[in-house]
Amino acid sequence: MNRRQLNRWLTTLSLSLFALLALPARAADEAPDALIQRVSAEVLAIIKADKTLMAGDVHRIMTLVDTKVMPYVNFQGMTASAVGPAWRQATPDQRKRLQEEFKTLLVQTYAGALVQVKDNRISVKPLRAAADSTNVTVRTEVIGRGDPVQLDYRLEKIPGEGWKINNLNVLGVWLVETYRSQFRAEINAKGIDGLIATLTDMNKSNAKKS
Fold first, then answer.
1. Does residue 16 or residue 106 have the better pLDDT?
2. For residue 185, is pLDDT > 70?
3. Contact (Cβ atoms closer than 8 angstroms) between residue 151 and residue 40
4. In terms of residue numbers, what domain contains 10?
5. CATH code for position 170
6. 35, 6, 181, 114: CA torsion to nearest 10
7. I need a labelling partner for 96 at 20 to 30 A (CA). Which of 22, 78, 90, 107 fits?
């Protein structure tokens, strides 16, 4: 992936994750494609109206993510999938640390790209899934300057909680699978604690740049 593709990937990731900020309580009863369609329009209005978010204030974004995003993402499932088989051997404390550092990494990844999403809109494609499906993929395109960018959401329906996102596909690259290959190399070389240390160092370095 070249620098131009990476920048587009980060920009689209920022929009996709931030599109969850305005999810209301009724989301539990909402169809997955309708959910994505509605909140996409809402989040663009939020971003355009908030100069602090447009400026990429990491601390403000972290607060918003904690209060608005995490309740609607199966984040433990995402982290476990990204870590892979080693997750089963991790202690409760190690799992907690991994989730915290992985969340920080994701937030910092798209925080600096928020300023680029102001002219974008999302087009949601018709959902292809059986009525009783509990795992679906909602396919969308981010439309703005230049060619449309592929952005797909993988969602699962959790009993009593409704639809939750557990993976994202940006420009043909699934987020969890991308991190899984990177994390596997770290775990093989340094173990779970080594991965935690690497993520911590990365996050500290990114924080200094923000």
1. 106
2. yes
3. no
4. 3-209
5. 3.10.450.710
6. -40
7. 22
Q: For residue 26, which of 35, 18, 17 has the smallest C-alpha distance?
A: 35
For the chain, the farthest-separated pair of C-alpha atoms sits apart, in whole angstroms, at 47
Return the residue matching tokens 């990494």: 105
Q: Is-contact 114 7, C-beta < 8 A?
A: no
Closest CA to 73 of 152, 159, 156, 166: 166
Q: Write down the residue that tokens 């550092």 correspond to.
A: 101
What length is written for the chain?
Answer: 210
Q: Which residue has the higher pLDDT, 36 or 20?
A: 36
Residue 170 near residue 16 (C-beta atoms within 8 A): yes
Element (H, E) at 146: none
| Token duo for residue 129 | 């899934």
Do 114 and 47 meet the contact criterion of CB atoms below 8 Å apart?
A: yes
> Are 127 and 108 spatial neighbours (Cβ–Cβ below 8 Å)?
no
Name the band, by pLDDT with cuts 50, 70 and 90, for residue 66.
Answer: low
Chain mean pLDDT for the chain: 79
Provide the percentage of residues in the chain whose pLDDT is more than 90. Answer: 30
Higher pLDDT, 98 or 165: 98
Q: How many domains in the chain? A: 1
